[in-house]
Predict the 3D structure of the following.
Amino acid sequence: MRIAVGLSGGVDSSVAAYLLKQAGHDVFAIFMQNWNDATGTLHGDCEWEEERAVAEMVAKKIGIDFHFVDLSSEYRKRVVDYMFSEYERGRTPNPDVLCNSEIKFDAFLKCALELGADYVATGHYCRKEEFVDEHGTTIFRILAGSDPNKDQSYFLCGLNQEQLSRALFPIGHLLKPEVRRIAREAGLPSAEKKDSQGICFVGKVDLPVFLQQKLKAKEGDVVEIFRDNCPVMPENTPLAELALPVSYRKSDGKVIGKHQGAQFYTIGQRKGLNIGGHAEPLFIISTDIENNVIYVGEGQSHPGLYRKALRILPEEVHWIRPDLEMKEGEERDYLVRIRYRQPLQKGRLIYREDGMFILFEEAQRGITAGQFAAWYTTDSEMVGSGVINR
């Protein structure tokens, strides 16, 4: 079996390559350059030249061939431009999900197949299983990684069956400390390397600075909404209304400061406001892009931060398991995650003509348009996802 490993220079992909080589597979490495700082659009602290040097040393240590591919043009078109577009609309995208579905398991996968690979392996902390159904069709499953602190299945919520048929996740059954131990014992150069942070393949960046490369700053009001002014939804509120974010008016609260553009802020955010005089931190509870106003509330428990339901447009519902796809009028209980690292939440999926609604057992903090909701079975299989519309 000939396997291409997406070798990033980090410890996880290094150990993935090492384990496959130890298992006797025909393994080779491909390093992806997905960002080029010379473009000047944004500058992160991810120095790809250094990452490449470490990846080459790892490949040499393991004894596998090393290849380099430049996917920066694809990354810009399919991930970075998407980010700008979403923020401009007042939505908060998740570039890491797009990076996996559009780059690692699409553009990169095509390069690997052209180099003769049968499969592509990555260092994701998730597991893959397969079975043959009654029609003789092989069905692939994505399951949560065995390490509850590192499970990265959420980032793969946009993958399809064809992509999964070519994917391998060699470390998904391991805990992070075990991965570190294996790397040390094997003498891999990446053994002590810190985990990467920030935007996928770009690194840690100042997000408002990044956005201001294309989105103009414009001063607007920060309005505080007091708890008593937050509407309380009756228990008999129709689902379509329950899934709507609360809309505020400036007259509902008090102007307490200025901001530089509503598109630079997201629901649940607390940093970047620079407004004092409160006993508890302020959080964004709503943004009005059209009128350039952001609304804030004081404290983690402010009712404006919480909602019981969300909606996903029909065209933005994605089933990793098409055989489990719901039909209009159907309802089904799943465990749901609306952001990475969030503990799974009990929710009911309700499929109607105007979209998929998710009604949570408990109100959720910071439901944000543009982010992904992913749903799991009770045995840790992720079976579908969708972009939160509102």
About this structure: Helices lie at 11-22, 48-62, 72-88, 95-114, 161-165, 176-186, 207-211, 239-242. The first helix runs from residue 11 to 22. The CA atoms of residues 331 and 350 lie 4 Å apart.
